[in-house]
Amino acid sequence: MAVISADTRDRIKTLVSDVLEVESDELTDTSRFVEDHDADSMRLIEILSSLELNLKVTIPQSELPRMVNLSGVYDVVGEIRP
Amino acid sequence: MTGATLAITDWSAVSPFGTGRDAFAKGVRQQVSTAVRLDRERWGVPDDVACLVPDFDVRTALGKKGTRSMNRVTGLAVATSGDLLAGAGGLPVPRERTGFVLGTTVGSAQSTIDLTRGSLTGERPYHVESGLIPYAVMNGAAGQCAIWHGLRGPNATLSAGRPGGLVALNYARRLLLSGRATAVLCGAAEEFSDARSWIDHHSREGGAPGPVLGEGCALFSLTTEPEEPPLAELLAVASATFADGDRRGAVDRCVRRALAAGGAEASQVWVACPSGAAGAEGDGELDALTGLFGAARVGTPVAALIGETHAASASFELAALLSRAEDDSACAGRTAVITSIDPGGTAAAAVLRLRPGQ
């Protein structure tokens, strides 16, 4: 599995906490977007599109089920990003 | 006509006068002018002045949760409905039975343009801020008001330009008379934005100076089951289109039809409130009302104080009428008329009975 840089991780964390409207210290690698941060389906789409827009990648919607927490997002982006 | 009473039990406004019914009524009473010089850092517009809701910022007004992508018009509508729902006259019926009807021009021209621009300039057409999408369609504000406040009744957005607030009253009237809802929050909202200012600028011949733009939202609680004597009863609304340039005729027709439908006589009318439209529309509207009621019974539009608020203008006229009625017991049981007209070719009139049963 591809590994993403610490910089990219920080960037992702900032983007995701922005969308979830939480402080970045409230968001851990394993805290779950829906269960722990009250995200709804619209919010999950926003996370995906914010990552696409800002990291200049395209993430298939079929990856959404894996993007339940930061750790899942790191994995998905790591596989896509060269 | 059915025997049901369409009662206006309460209202609120977030306007250039400030937040809430009291601030608005005070502004009307004291004839406060609200135009301010625009901050060039904040607004990239051709206007030098505008009538803004003072210090209004969506996230300051509503908090940081659920507001990241929320546009100004939605913030104005959510804040106004929140104030109305929190008021003493609050809702006598469950929120499951409460509908929401909002008049608008195009929703938020700013959000629509931002989303479109993002799609055209991004790396890929679909690399857009998806959080903007719900607000880039015109029913974003009404939808968000219902979500925010848990209003489960019918939710409608009417794009009708300047008569938006009157057309919304008619829609609410039908929902109530057909039993689709027991109460309806109904009104109109318009935001000030770079996009709206530029569209307004370019819609005038040769960039001729236009009216000072204003913004805000006014909402009214309507129900067929009032618990106390209401502020007013909505008797009838009529609307018309004009393709022939006969603005006076269109307003005249609307008023006559609304009076007839409401079972009211022109001679009984206490006051007729024009919408304060600019140019030929305003002239035609004023001609019609002066012809029907005489100049002494034609009111001064609140637009002179809060600017051209387009979709919200008729709702602000109603708010101003109810403010004046509050101060004048002579109006109890009297009839009032509110009209509006849009350069796009629509006109409307509403007939109300003020402070019935007092």
What is the structure about, briefly put?
The complex is a heterodimer of chains A (82) and B (358). With 82 residues, chain A is mainly α. Chain A contains four helices and no strands.
Question: Secondary structure elements and their pairing?
Answer:
The complex is a heterodimer of chains A (82) and B (358).
Chain A: H1 6-20, H2 33-37, H3 41-55, H4 70-80
Chain B: E1 7-15, E2 18-19, H1 21-30, E3 36-37, E4 49-50, H2 58-62, H3 72-86, E5 98-104, H4 109-121, H5 133-136, H6 140-149, E6 155-159, H7 164-177, E7 183-190, H8 194-202, E8 216-223, E9 232-241, H9 247-261, E10 269-273, H10 279-293, H11 303-306, H12 313-327, E11 335-342, E12 346-354
Parallel strand pairs in B: 5-6, 5-7, 10-11
Antiparallel strand pairs in B: 1-2, 1-8, 1-9, 3-4, 7-8, 9-12, 11-12
Helix pairs in contact in B: 1-12, 3-6, 9-10
Spans of chain A of 5+ residues with little confidence (pLDDT < 50)?
none
Radius of gyration of chain B (CA) equals 19 Å
So what's the CATH class of the largest domain in chain B? Alpha Beta
* Low-pLDDT ranges of chain B: none
From the helix content, strand content and strand pairing of chain A, which structural class follows?
mainly alpha
Helix content bin of chain B:
25-40%
N-to-C order of helices and strands of chain A: HHHH
The helix count of chain A comes to 4
Provide the CATH superfamily of the largest domain in chain B. Thiolase/Chalcone synthase
What is the N-to-C succession of helices and strands of chain B? EEHEEHHEHHHEHEHEEHEHHHEE
Residues in β-strands, percent of chain A:
under 5%
